[in-house]
Amino acid sequence: MKIVKKDNFNRDLFSEIVFAENVNRVIGEEMVKLWNEKYWNGNSEYYLKLVDDDYELYDGYADLL
Question: How far apart are CA 46 and CA 44, in angstroms?
Answer without folding.
Answer: 6
